[in-house]
Every structure is written in C-alpha cells, then in structure tokens.
Task: structure prediction
Amino acid sequence: MPPQSTGDSADFQKLIRCHMVGPKGSQGVRFVALEYFSLWEHMMRTRHGLECTDYSVGLWIPADEFERKAHIYSHSGTVEAVARFNFSIFDDTYHYTYAASRFVPDADTEHFRQVMLAHIPDDIRRSSRFSLEAIPGYCIEKANVTNRDSLVLGLYHGLHDIY
Result:
C-alpha cells in the first residue's frame, strides 16, 4: 500500500520540467527540483553533453492529495503523472544515511527503477541499509519559462505569483 500523504505543503515540490537533447540526438523529459536545477543543468551540460530546452515551472503533488482536491487542481494548469522516487542508503564507513528524491514521468518509472538499482551493489540492495520507494503523483505545470535568465540561482523570480 502506498504511503499516505499528510496533505502538508512539505509533501509538495516545486519542479522545473525541461526537454533534454543528448549529443547523439537522444531526447527525453526531466523533472528537477527547482532549488537544484541550475547546478543539475550545469552538470548535465558539462559532464554529459546534454542540452536543456523548453523549460516550465510546476508543482508536484502526491496522487492521494491531488485526487482528494482534483476539482481544484485540475483548473491550475497542465497536469502530468509524475512519480517521486525516494531513496536512502546507509553508509557503514561514515555512519551516515544519504537520502534523495528524483521525479520521473510515469512512462519512464520502470526504466528509472532498473537504472537506479543497477548502480547499487547487490549486497546493499538486499540489506536493510537501502530503501527505494516510488510515490505516485502529478506535476501541475503552471508557467513556461521563455527566457532561461528567468531562472536565477535556481529560483524562479515569479514563483510567488504562480503558487
């Protein structure tokens, strides 16, 4: 059974949706947390040769919260099914738990899960030191960003006007 949302704003996440184009012409869509977007985009460009285009700002909402208030959220903008993957790995060396989230279009969830698991050694995957869960949700895209300069230091200047 999927975890229940508390309906609290901490469950929501502001995202940037963008199209990715690889050096060999491969294409895809990515959803990245707004506060990490500028760094993430820089890493994709400089380390992997990927280019980002067609930016939009959105708000990710857990599926149970969206369905509870669909009559409100369905009027807010373009709605796209997007899963949130939460993962945690305990590092025995430093006695520290690393936790992170990634957002993936529903059509790509199984592929993403397999790629993530391929990066984790089998012994850790089978242990109690690793957790990977997918939380269904929706991203409501509210605004296209026509000028990349509108994303300053990972903060969208008009965000308060949108949400």
Notes: The chain has one domain: 10-162. The radius of gyration is 17 Å. Residues 37-48 form the longest helix (12 residues).
